[in-house]
Design goal:
By secondary structure, the chain is of the alpha/beta class. Helix 2 runs parallel beside helix 3, helix 4 packs parallel to helix 5 and helix 5 crosses helix 6. The longest helix has 21 residues. The chain is globular, with a radius of gyration of 18 Å.
Length: 300
């Protein structure tokens, strides 16, 4: 099984000061997809520049031709399905049908309180995602949608002409819990994981592989519950959040060894962060580019 290699470009640079060049270079390097984070602000980047995901992807669509583009991930923390659907249909049109929506429950970070609300509990986030994803599915596939739910409503929401991609642009559902995995099985074209966060500080790479193997098995069970072939779902690993941290980007051999372990678990796509100096995502740019150009051929 071949393994696709993608990247995530954080939206912290002005478009005219390196932002545009990063997306263009990502396509030149042959990445399958270039994603960006969909946050209002994020962690250590909160007090510096940070731009919106949808405008950034729209601009990226205008300076690239082949590479797929997407969010990793969008959440209900500050999004509503009706307005998001309109933006996604527009973005899919501008890009010529190259958009992937990564979507998840979100967390308790800055996005969770930016609109003035109290942070939702884990259960509350799961409840909202369970309503958000099916409604967004309908909004992207039906010309007119009316809906009254516990958290979201739509009244004759029109989305003509729909997505360029049919029946809609693909969803990559980020999940590790049973409810999220069931959402991925039912509505996703892909599933996303960052590993087990409990292992990040004190776990080992071997424990991480084992934990993610367990997640893959639970995803297979969720697919089996609804009679879906587990192989229909792409499996995406967003790197940088396992105990390996930045080690896989230290050399081409280190990355091929790292990615090969996850290919054996059935993963179809590995996502690496575009290097950011003086951050958790610092990496040698020459090694990064070597990995981008040479690793996919070694992982076929």
């Amino acid at each position: 099984m071949s393994l696709r290699l993608s990247t995530v470009i954080l939206p912290y640079r002005r478009w005219q000061e390196g932002g545009r060049e990063a997306w263009q270079r990502a396509e030149q390097l042959g990445f399958h997809t270039a994603y960006t984070y969909d946050h209002l602000s994020w962690r250590t980047f909160r007090d510096g520049p940070w731009f919106g995901a949808v405008p950034t992807l729209t601009a990226a669509a205008g300076v690239t031709d082949r590479m797929r583009l997407g969010t990793l991930v969008t959440s209900p923390n500050f999004r509503h399905p009706v307005t998001l659907a309109k933006e996604l249909i527009s973005l899919d049109d501008v890009s010529g049908g190259r958009i992937m929506l990564g979507i998840g429950a979100g967390g308790t970070g800055f996005d969770a309180t930016a609109l003035g609300q109290e942070p939702w509990t884990l259960r509350e986030r799961a409840d909202r995602l369970a309503e958000f994803v099916p409604l967004l599915d309908r909004l992207l596939t039906e010309d007119s949608v009316s809906y009254e739910g516990d958290f979201y409503s739509a009244h004759e929401a029109r989305n003509i002409p729909g997505c360029v991609q049919r029946p809609r642009l693909p969803f990559a559902v980020a999940a590790t819990g049973p409810r999220g995995l069931r959402l991925a099985a039912r509505h996703g074209q892909a599933w996303v994981t960052t590993g087990d966060p409990r292992l990040y500080e004190n776990g080992t790479p071997e424990q991480s592989v084992q934990a993610i193997r367990g997640q893959v098995e639970k995803l297979a069970d969720a697919c089996a519950e609804i009679g879906r072939d587990r192989n229909e779902l792409d499996k995406i690993l967003l790197t940088g959040f396992t105990p390996d941290r930045g080690q896989p980007l230290e050399s081409l051999d280190a990355f091929v060894d790292f990615a090969g372990r996850y290919r054996e678990l059935g993963f179809t796509e590995i996502v690496i962060h575009w290097p950011i100096p003086d951050s958790d995502f610092a990496a040698d740019e020459k090694v990064f580019e070597q990995i981008a150009m040479e690793a996919p051929a070694q992982l076929r």
